[in-house]
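User: Structure with magnesium ion, tokens only please.
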Amino acid sequence: MTHAVEIRDLHKYFGDNEVLKGIDFTVEPGQVVCVIGPSGSGKSTLLRCVNMLEVPTKGQVFINGAELTDPDADIDAARRHVGMVFQQFNLFPHLTALQNVMIAQQRVLGRGKNEAEIIARENLNKVGVAEKCDAYPGQLSGGQQQRVAIARALAMNPDLMLFDEPTSALDPELVGDVLTVMRKLAEEGMTMLVVTHEMGFAREVADRVVFMDGGVIVEDGEPSKVIGNPSHERTRTFLHRVL
Ligand code: ADP
Ligand code: MG
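Assistant:
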């Protein structure tokens, strides 16, 4: 079976600073993998290397068996299958929710306006903000904006979704709505790689939890193991701080 994501001996330097020091892991189709670890451990850099928003210094990245780190790879084509949701929602402030979900469909996938609108409405409905189609981002709560951002990613029909701390910028009472949408996606079989500090979500939804520290993977296994009964002192120390 082809891995949804395969990372082989990934290294990333920023100048002299080696931020990723040899990362190996895989995500299988339909799996949810949560990446946890302290601030500065390289989680965002790893996620950004998966879709080549950062170019790895060394090592290989494969998505659905295609090597993105191959110099001849069609990065744009590969990225079309990958949705990304950031901590900051990055919606266009001058476009409505509906327009935000339509624009990449039209520009990147070449869908016509009617088709893009139908798909945008379906996805806004799916994330529970159908009634906010005509609102601008500034008129929406953070939780609603993040759900629009998820709808925007889903409208591109990704077979892999990357989430980088999608709830970290939200007021606590809005976190649950976004996690509910992510849980639903997981149940539908979406392949997901999620950087998160939400240990409840990781424990309940993830098939695997990866603990990173200092640019390496310290521990990778089932949530009940990595969160419930970690093997490494570094993992225990981290969990004591966040739980
Ligand atoms: P995390 O997401 O786990 O908090 P990051 O991947 O954001 O960690 O960062 C890991 C390290 O890489 C940090 O020391 C950070 O300062 C550094 N870093 C991240 N992005 C850049 C960049 N574009 N240029 C220079 N250093 C960076
Ligand atoms: Mg980060």
